[in-house]
């Protein structure tokens, strides 16, 4: 089974939406960053440039965009995928 941190984060967002739960913290950071990146790509930027631009638009640590549950799940499936800085 392949685990993707982005797929797990999207699953968390879908669950929150279905349950009527507000998002915050890593979930909100992930959502805002991905929305910004998608908008930039729809305007013609390549993926790498849009990724860097989206990260630079918000004053949050790049280590803040994945929820600890997602980091732990990925590390359980693929040890060492996330270095300790992520936690």
Structure in words:
Helix content is 62%, strand content 0%. The protein is an all-alpha fold and 87 residues long. Helix 2 packs across helix 3 (47-57).
Précis, in short:
With 87 residues, the protein is mainly α. The chain contains four helices and no strands. The protein has one domain.
How large, in whole angstroms, is the Cα Rg?
14 Å
- Number of helical runs? 4
Structural class from helices and strands? mainly alpha
Helix content: 55-70%
The coarse silhouette is globular
Strand fraction equals under 5%
Report the mean per-residue pLDDT as an integer: 91
Sequence of secondary-structure elements: HHHH
Distance between the termini: 24 Å
Low-confidence stretches: none
Major β-sheet annotation: none
Number of domains: 1
Count every beta strand, where a strand is a DSSP E run of 2 or more residues. 0
What is the topological layout?
Elements: H1 5-19, H2 25-42, H3 47-57, H4 68-77
Helix pairs in contact: 2-3
Offer a few descriptive terms.
87 residues, mainly alpha, 4 helices
């Amino acid at each position: 089974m392949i685990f993707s941190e982005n797929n797990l984060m999207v699953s968390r967002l879908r669950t929150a939406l279905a349950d009527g739960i507000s998002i915050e913290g890593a979930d909100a950071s992930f959502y805002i960053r991905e929305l910004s990146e998608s908008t930039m790509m729809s305007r013609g930027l390549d993926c790498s440039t849009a990724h860097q631009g989206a990260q630079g638009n918000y004053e949050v640590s790049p280590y803040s965009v994945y929820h600890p549950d997602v980091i732990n799940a990925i590390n359980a499936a693929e040890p060492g995928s996330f270095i300790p800085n992520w936690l």
